[in-house]
Design goal:
With 178 residues, the protein is α/β, with parallel strands linked by helices. The chain has one domain: Rossmann fold (3-Layer(aba) Sandwich). It has 6 helices and 6 strands. A 6-stranded parallel sheet has the order 3-2-1-4-5-6, sandwiched between helices. Strand 4, helix 4 and strand 5 form a beta-alpha-beta unit. Helix 1 packs across helix 3, helix 1 crosses helix 6 and helix 2 crosses helix 5. The longest helix has 22 residues.
């Protein structure tokens, strides 16, 4: 993946994020975490996400959840909720910096859109190692809200380093098999 195509994608992402930040009154300088919930969740998973969202509200991060209306139990005041439809999904794919990934998530689509996954161990996602500058995502090793939170903190801290973040996006885009 060449640097110019990654640069163009990140410029488009910045523009889309600017539009969303004006529409929903949030800071465009903070990383944007998108959560795409396009499948029915178990009550246990809903509870984990709720605890995670409460915790992530303490971070310097913006969160948008794209979900069906049947997920009312997840609503928190510090999170923006969008109804799940094609237009909202496309808008969030273009603007999101990082995303919480589930077993039903299309990781290749996220990587091609320059989104860094925060994921359990799975094919297509390799944990970022800052010492070796390798990896295309942030892996959480336990299925707990606090393990997900820890991976999100690592993602947020890496986002503050533009060269490293751009390098991760490039690695992610290049890792997708055509």
């Amino acid at each position: 993946m060449d640097t110019s195509s990654v640069g163009k994608l990140l410029a488009q992402k910045k523009e889309a994020k600017d539009i969303l930040s004006k529409k929903f009154s949030f800071s465009k300088k903070k990383p944007l975490l998108g959560i795409f919930l396009d499948n029915e969740l178990s009550k246990e998973t809903e509870k984990k996400i709720h605890v995670f969202l409460e915790a992530v509200s303490e971070l310097d991060i913006e969160v948008i959840v794209l979900a069906d209306s049947n997920l009312d139990s997840l609503h928190l005041p510090n999170v923006i909720y969008l109804p799940y439809n094609r237009a909202s999904r496309q808008m969030l794919l273009v603007a999101t910096d990082m995303s919480l990934v589930f077993d039903f998530s299309d990781v290749d689509e996220m990587l091609l859109n320059g989104i860094i996954p925060i994921s359990p161990t799975r094919a297509g996602v390799s944990d970022y190692n800052p010492n070796h500058e390798t990896g295309n995502g942030f892996i959480y090793k336990k299925e707990s809200p606090w393990a997900i939170f820890e991976a999100t903190v690592r993602a947020r801290e890496t986002f503050k380093l533009p060269y490293d973040w751009k390098h991760m996006v490039r690695q992610g885009m290049g890792s997708v098999k055509a």
